[in-house]
Amino acid sequence: MKQFLQFPQAFWWGAATSGPQSEGSYNKKHESLMDYWYRTTPEDFFNQVGPTVASDFYNQYENDFKLLKEIGLNSYRTSIQWTRLIDDLEEGSVNPEGLAFYKKIAQEAKKNDIELVFNLHHFDIPIELVQKYGGWTSKHVTDLFAKFAKCAFENLGKEVKYWVTFNEPIVIVEASYLDGHHYPKYVGHGKEAAQVMYNLALASAKAIQEYKKLNLDGKIGIILNLTPSYPRSEEKEDILAGQIADDMLNRSFLEPAVLGHFPPRLISLFEKEGILWESCEEELQIIEENKVDFLGLNYYHPNRVKAPEKEVKFPPGFWLPLNYFNAYQKPDIRMNPYRGWEIYPKAIYDIAMDIKNNYGNIPWYISENGMGVEGEERFLGKDGIIHDTYRIDFYEEHLSWLHKAIQEGSNCFGFHAWTGIDCWSWANAYKNRYGFISVDLNTQKHTIKQSGRWIKNVVEQNGFESKYEL
Ligand code: BG6
């Protein structure tokens, strides 16, 4: 039986992207890690497409905001590129041309009645800081980040009311230092990974401290990707494996951001493994005192885990969490074959309940959720638009679980899809498309898809008729 699901008043219906994935690298002051990685190793990127043009937001932002408005969105997240806003990275001085661009973005959002969320970091550290200082392994870089943040708040903090310090910091830890997916593609650099984890939480707290000093009329948070762990069985070993995976992948940033300290079990584990970060009282106090006002949570897929079956011996200096939890290949799961991610909408409800029960029901929103599909031109109709009904089904099912959580008291104030306009996505480049609006890479023409018409309808009604019985 179908049921109309009404969402709370003033609910955010929007989408997210990032500077490096949408703007194109035109007129930047510095190269980011991603720019450099592409310039030096283009073969690492799908079809050798890099961030140079992306979805041409730098040139098309006026038209893009019109399209976002046309599909009804009332809020939108993008990121300020450190490499565009800042002139001198050591001083954190402003690059006037970069600032002028971000001012235009803020004005354009306002003109279209779209609440803008500015993020400060989406995997795009300036490469100079990686080469000179070792990137996020360095405490000095956390100070430089705070200077960049201060510059952004001072110059744009009156126009823009919602800020986030980082997008998915755990991805930096995992992809650059543990599994080799992102430049510098280190595998098993456990000690550095742990230090990067700590430094990113510290950098976020330092940025929040700068924001609070300015007494601006706005709010600041962080965007975390949560992959809730589901153990293979009820056996105590599997349950413990699930808890440790959660500590490492989810709570490592959730706890410092919301509670002001790191998960004690994770600290003991890192200590036992000889990879615990270097910290001091003064830094721990900064983390303790500068918690977030709200959370943005990205949800794509769950994490199926099991206890390790045998102990793995690592060579000196190498560490991965393999002796604590292993991936579990659960039979009979639904998959998105293009991305290789499991589709499990109920996890959105489980996340909401975890935040309600264990994190003081802090205000939060879904800051990314979406389905990447390869070869979407197959679905191009005679009417010239892409008929992405699979995406509509995906969203309706996830939103039904989110609605249930809100009914049960979760303090969720919005839903942002990934993404508004198809965008470039790191090594996957334009392999999988996620947008409500398509991008023709040959012409850079942006066209609303069927899902764009669907979301407009959802926003107008502040809800939708759901076929899902939960
Ligand atoms: C999210 C990131 O985790 O996943 C985005 O925040 C990214 O930056 C998105 O684009 C989709 O990733 P992919 O690899 O499937 O294109």
Secondary structure layout:
Elements: E1 3-6, E2 12-16, H1 19-22, H2 33-40, H3 57-70, E3 75-79, H4 82-85, H5 96-111, E4 115-119, H6 127-133, H7 139-156, E5 162-167, H8 169-178, H9 190-213, E6 219-225, E7 229-231, H10 236-259, H11 264-272, H12 281-289, E8 294-298, E9 303-306, E10 326-327, E11 335-336, E12 341-342, H13 346-358, E13 364-368, E14 373-374, H14 389-407, E15 412-417, E16 432-433, E17 437-439, E18 446-448, H15 450-461, E19 463-466
Parallel strand pairs: 2-3, 2-15, 3-4, 4-5, 5-6, 6-8, 7-9, 8-13, 13-15
Antiparallel strand pairs: 1-19, 9-10, 11-12, 14-16, 17-18
Helix pairs in contact: 3-5, 7-9, 8-9, 9-10, 9-12, 13-14
The protein binds 6-O-phosphono-beta-D-glucopyranose.
Short description:
With 470 residues, the chain is an alpha/beta fold. It has helices at 19-22, 33-40, 57-70, 82-85, 96-111, 127-133, 139-156, 169-178, 190-213, 236-259, 264-272, 281-289, 346-358, 389-407, 450-461; strands at residues 3-6, 12-16, 75-79, 115-119, 162-167, 219-225, 229-231, 294-298, 303-306, 326-327, 335-336, 341-342, 364-368, 373-374, 412-417, 432-433, 437-439, 446-448, 463-466. 6-O-phosphono-beta-D-glucopyranose is lined by residues 18, 21, 167-168, 225, 298, 339, 368, 372, 418, 425, 428, 432.
